[in-house]
């Protein structure tokens, strides 16, 4: 038995696309603000760690004695 099935869209209902959420300008701005704040915080933490490390290494190195000005 062979059946011919027609796959047609009924004309009384238009096709619908499903989306999870309609983005709003406020939501996009909020996401951009949070992303910027997090990335700025990470950058500041890395820079602070590097500067602290460099200053700590510099302070732990032995200092050279100052050369005195010896005038004859």
What would your notes on this structure say?
The protein is mainly α. The chain is 50% helix and 0% strand. The chain is built from one helix and no strands. The radius of gyration is 34 Å and the shape is rod-shaped. It starts with 24 loop residues before the first helix and ends in a 12-residue tail after the last helix. The model has no long low-confidence stretch (mean pLDDT 82).
Question: Characteristics of this structure?
Answer:
single chain, 72 residues, mainly alpha, 1 helix, 50% helix, rod-shaped
Helix content class? 40-55%
N-to-C SSE string, H for helix and E for strand? H
The best one-word shape is: rod-shaped
Class by alpha and beta content: mainly alpha
Computed CA radius of gyration, to the nearest angstrom: 34 Å
Number of helices: 1
Oligomerization: single chain
* Overall mean pLDDT: 82
- Most strands sheet: none
**Segments where pLDDT lies below 50 for 5+ residues?**
none
Alpha-carbon distance between the two ends: 121 Å
Counted beta strands: 0
What share of the residues does DSSP label as strand, in percent? under 5%
How would you summarize the topology of this molecule?
Elements (H helix, E strand, L loop, with lengths): L24 H36 L12
Short description:
By secondary structure, this protein is mainly alpha-helical. It has 1 helix and no strands. The protein has one helix at 25-60.
């Amino acid at each position: 038995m062979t059946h011919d099935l027609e796959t047609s869209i009924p004309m009384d209902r238009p096709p619908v696309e499903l989306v999870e959420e309609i983005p709003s300008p406020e939501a996009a701005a909020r996401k951009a603000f949070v992303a910027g704040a997090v990335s700025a915080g990470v950058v500041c933490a890395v820079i602070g760690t590097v500067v602290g490390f460099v200053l700590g290494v510099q302070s732990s190195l032995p200092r050279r004695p100052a050369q005195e000005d010896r005038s004859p």
